[in-house]
Amino acid sequence: MKMITNDVTTWGKVDDYVTERLIPYDEVLEQVLLANQEAGLPEIDVSPAQGKLLNVIARIKGAKRILEIGTLGGYSTIWMARAIGPEGKLISLELDPFHAQVAKSNVALAGLEDRVEIRVGDALVQLEQLAKEKAEPFDLVFIDADKPSNPNYMKWALQFSRPGTVVISDNVIRDGEVIDHHSTDPRVQGIRKFMDMLSGEPAISGTAIQTVGSKGYDGFYIGIVQ
């Protein structure tokens, strides 16, 4: 049987298949997604397969301290917080107060409020505040916020890292538009500047992985601090 490899419907069906086989049903996570939907949040959470990937990477790393830039409703937050154990700490930064309120409720539903701190406000301002507080280095940094600021987020990620820290950034392929140097989309321009920055940055070594699925065609950057 010939498979259609560039069909969005097929990608979604494959995502469903992977989820059914490899990701056990989780009532809490389903309730979180429902709460986000009922609150009217944008449906831009990571997929279950992507959330599981973040969880697995955090566990492989043995992460105890995670920085998340961009909380939304806390779905990815919960996936990662579950990986760090009761002694771990995850700090998540969210611009929108309402999104943060929904996320805090979801984190409490998951029973993880003891290890998750959600800070509200402009991420760049919050990152400066963390620097003033002399925050300890993080084991994993997940960037999933406004794309025009990605280069600045990466600079801060490196500042809050140590050798071996894993840095992940979502939405770096953008339906393939990342290769369009004529694009006027500020999100694409932000990702291109992000990639240009990384191409000459000796402090981190990584790659970009293209992804397809229920969230369409996009990708992750995954790197390790040298």
TrEMBL record:
Q: Per the record's keyword annotation, is Methyltransferase included, yes or no?
A: yes
One GO MF term: S-adenosylmethionine-dependent methyltransferase activity
Q: Which UniProt keywords apply?
A: Methyltransferase, S-adenosyl-L-methionine, Transferase
Biological process (GO), any one: methylation
Q: Name one Pfam family in it.
A: Methyltransf_3
Coiled-coil stretches are none
Q: Which InterPro entries match?
A: Cation-dep_OMT (IPR050362), SAM-dependent_MTases_sf (IPR029063), SAM_O-MeTrfase (IPR002935)
Tell me the superkingdom of the source: Bacteria
Membrane among keywords: no
Name of this chain's protein: Methyltransferase
